[in-house]
Amino acid sequence: MATGANQLIGTQSLSNDVDVAIIGNGPSAIALSFLLSGYRPYWNGTRHPNQFLASKLPDTHSQSLLDQDLEFLSEGLTGRSNNPISLLFDHLLQPNADLGLNTPPAIEWRYHKELAIDHVVLGRGCVGGSWNDMPSDLQSLSYAQWLQLPDMPVSDYISEMSKEETAALERGQCGVIAQYYQHYVKRKGLHGRFVCGAEVTHVRRLEDASATDGQMASLRPFLPHCVSPVASCCTPSPLEHKTFMQLFGSDCSSAMANDCPSLNGFSPHRVPSSTISEEPCLCMSSSSSDGSLSSGPVLPGNYSSRSMSPSSLEDKPVGDEADNGRCTGRPRLASDEHLWSLSGTRRCRPFHFCAKHLVLAVGTSDEPRRLNVPGEDLDILSYGCPTPEKLRSIAPSVDAMRPVVVVGCGLTAADTVILALQYGLPVVHVFARAVADTSLVLNRMPPSVYPEYVRVSKLMQAQAALVRPGESVVFNNEEPYVSLPFHHVLSLAPGVCTLQDAKHQREVSIPCSYVFVAAGSRPNLSFLSHSGQDLLFSPSTEFQCRTNPLVVDPVSFESKQVRGLYAMGPLVGDNFVRFAIGASLGIGQALASKLRR
Question: Which has more pLDDT, 61 or 580?
């Protein structure tokens, strides 16, 4: 129990508390970790195409944007985000993006070692979040350029990996984008901050900012020894490696090396560039057999000659009580700070540590929306877009008399239909809306950019069928696809899916071999009190990215209900990477200001 927090961190050692804990390890969390690691954005002196913003920038040339009035800079900006700071960051990183132009950024990045903030990033899966769960050959919805992170163009990574020139405005493959995020964390030296496979199960705030002796006494058995967390970017000390081996055993060291890159000694500032390409990816080996993405090559070289890289940092001496894994020091908190207690598991082992500030960076794909019908727990049903391996495994049991059923009418449902048809599987597409509904996203996709989604939209309209009770679904000879608008699932039984025809008010049972439910998803905030419902704009209704997000300050992204709690990405309405990373600017400024005081 004495080294419980090390069971979370592996070779990364925390002091008795960290300044910032980030839950979630997708693109928005990566961008925030980049800023918290000491990187600061500066206006690079170029003339910005937005005249209103350009008139304000000349006065900011000598100071980091984190030292500027972000609210003033963001005033008057418009775009596809309701958060002004997200719009500001987007305008600076990708000027004229909405015009389809690949204009160079208006900011440059400089590294300040002394401004780095102690933080840890916790993720249930691999670095990149839900991007690792998507079929690797599926095309991204956004242009690849709009998915990139600060100071490392995704086009450079794709070109280096494929050895071919890549068009600036071109959709990327989801597998390549996931590998780009993993590579980014390594290349920028952030990997020591990331902990994969960590399931946070309970978060609570210690109300007294100074933390009582009793509260700290209850936490001490879980706290690790006092080694500087910043040193985790470098090769682990013998004591750290010994602790890891004691916790996980020698048989786990190889597998864990993929989760904690500091175990294999990776450091872009210590390892020659010629050896970097041989390193495994952050979280998984190239021999994954469960359909997850294999690691791509890690590229040598620096993507920005104007960026300053962090130098190697030396380990601080181990504290007096390192042998028993305890820290007796109490957290030093400002009067406006609170101590957060985080608990959870990693590889079936518990962890428990404290943080002064908490950032929620989870996406909206944690929990699929269930149908809540009888038979939903049968093994003939799964949620989300299936992997190619899944489709191949069920293919032998699928035929025209036992088709697959796809439930939903969004983009994930369309992806499922596309993949199923690619594998020659007959599809019955069930959804509750009208095929001509103009609010359907599939009916609003430009054909030149999204031809595959337009094809599904046309199929939904052209091959809508009417199935009467007792009749079977009949497929035409051209495409084994039938859509059933105005239908929803009533119940499931082995080999049978019972539907409600809302238009004709009758039940219809159709034979099926498998059911794919793509009816949306929502974030999992069960580790918070009341599952975070009290943080929403309307606490009595379900979370919705656009209409019912978490209520935060428009500049700092700090919750208006709970101080010391921040949120970013889809939780605050920014569902696209291009805007989701913008909150890192506001949160980074707020945390730097508070911790500096």
Answer: 580
Helices 411-422/451-462 angle, 10° precision: 90
Instruction: Give 85-140 pLDDT, tens digit per residue.
Output: 999 999 999 998 888 777 889 999 999 999 999 999 999 999 999 888 888 888 88
Q: How far apart are the first and last CA of the chain?
A: 34
Residues 54, 58, 62: CA angle, nearest 5 degrees: 140
Q: What angle do CA 508, 520, 140 make, to 5 degrees?
A: 120
Output the CA–CA distances (angstroms, integers) from residue 436 to 11, 444, 450, 457, 461, in the order listed.
Answer: 55, 11, 18, 9, 7
**Distance between CA 157 and CA 161 in Å, rounded?**
6
Query: pTM of the prediction?
Result: 0.77
Helix (H/G/I), strand (E/B), else coil: 435 = coil
Q: Provide the token pair at 441.
A: 């996203």
Confidence grade of residue 466 (pLDDT, cut at 50, 70, 90): confident
Q: What integer pLDDT is reported at residue 264 of this predicted model? A: 37
Q: Cβ distance 373 to 498 under 8 Å?
A: no
Give the β-pairing of 367-368 and 381-383. unpaired
Rounded to whole angstroms, the Cα distance separating 393 from 581 reads 37
Task: Round to whole Å and give the CA distance between 483 and 413.
Answer: 12
* Among 105, 129, 123, CA closest to 45: 105
Q: What is the mean pLDDT of the chain?
A: 78
In a 13 Å sphere around the CA of 254, the CA atoms on its Cβ side amount to 3
Identify the residue with better confidence: 573 or 2. Answer: 573
Buried b (16+ CB within 10 A) or exposed e, 272-290: eeeebeebbbbbbeeeeee
Task: Name the residue among 145, 86, 178 with its Cα closest to residue 573.
Answer: 86
Alpha carbons 70 and 456: distance in angstroms, whole number: 43
The whole-number pLDDT of residue 342 equals 95
Residue type at 11 in one-letter notation: T
Strand partners, 195: 122
> Are the beta carbons of 20 and 117 closer than 8 angstroms?
yes
Res 187: pLDDT: 93
Alpha carbons 232 and 245: distance in angstroms, whole number: 16
319-333 per-residue burial string, b: 16 or more CB within 10 A, e: under 16: bebbeebbbeebbeb
